[in-house]
Amino acid sequence: xxxxxxxxxxxxxxxxxxxxxxxxxxxxxxxxxxxxxxxxxxxxxxxxxxxxxxxxxxxxxxxxxxxxxxxxxxxxxxxxxxxxxxxxxxxxxxxxxxxxxxxxxxxxxxxxxxxxxxxxxxxxxxxxxxxxxxxxxxxxxxxxxxxxxxxxxxxxxxxxxxxxxxxxxxxxxxxxxxxxxxxxxxxxxxxxxxxxxxxxxxxxxxxxxxxxxxxxxxxxxxxxxxxxxxxxxxxxxxxxxxxxxxxxxxxxxxxxxxx
Length: 259
Fold this sequence. Notes:
GO molecular function: sigma factor antagonist activity
Protein name: Regulator of SigK
Oligomer: single chain
Strand content: 15-25%
Membrane topology: Single-pass membrane protein
InterPro entries: Anti-sigma-K/W_factor, Anti_sigma_zinc_sf, RskA_C, Znf_put
Order of helices and strands: HHHHHEEEEEEEE
Subcellular location: Cell membrane; Membrane
Distance between the termini: 7 Å
Number of helices: 5
Helix content: 25-40%
Number of strands: 8
Radius of gyration: 30 Å
C-alpha cells in the first residue's frame, strides 16, 4: 500500500512540459524510476501533450478560390434563360472545339480540390478533438483516483504467461469504485479480449474488458458498491468471448483483493 505523500503527481504536468527547476527534475526522475504509478501518469501526460500541436485551427481556403467556387455554384443553380433566336454559325471543329474545354478544366479542378481539402481538414480536426477528449477524460479519472485521501493500492503481478506484466488497483472510497492500471502486456490475439474478474469464494464477477494499447498499457474503472473487501481475489484472463460468465482462458495477472 502506498501513501499519498510518497508520490509526485503534482509535479508530473510541469515535468512533462519542461517547466521544473533542475533539482525538481532530479527529484521527479528519481521517483519515476521506482514508481510504476507515477510513471504511468507521466506517460498519460506525454500522450496528451503530444496532441497539443494538432489543436491549431486549419488553414482557411483562399478568399479568391471561395468566391470562384460560390460564383460557379450560383451560375449553375440559376434557371436557363428562354431561348432567343440567333443566327446560325458554323460550330468550331477540330482543335478550336477542344480549346474551350481545356480552358474550363483547370478552374473546375481547382474548385473541386479546395472543396474536398476543406472537408478532409474538418474531419481531421474532429478526429483529433475526439482523441484529445478521450485522453482528458482518462487523465481526469486517473487524477481523481490518485488524489483520493483515503485511497489504497493493491498490486497485481504477472503470471508465467505474462512475466513482464504488472499493475495496481487504485481504490477510491469516495466513488465506491477502483481503477485498474496495468503495463507490460502484449495486445491480445485477434478475436480475443482481456477480461477482469472479481472473485469471492466460488463466485466469479466479470468486471469488464481491459483495453490494451500497442505499448502494453491499459486501464479500466471497476464499480465496487460493496467495497473491495467483499472480494477475495482479482485476476486478469485472456478470453475468446468477452461476455463469458466464468474465466476459461489463460490467467495473465492476479492479486489478493486485500493487497
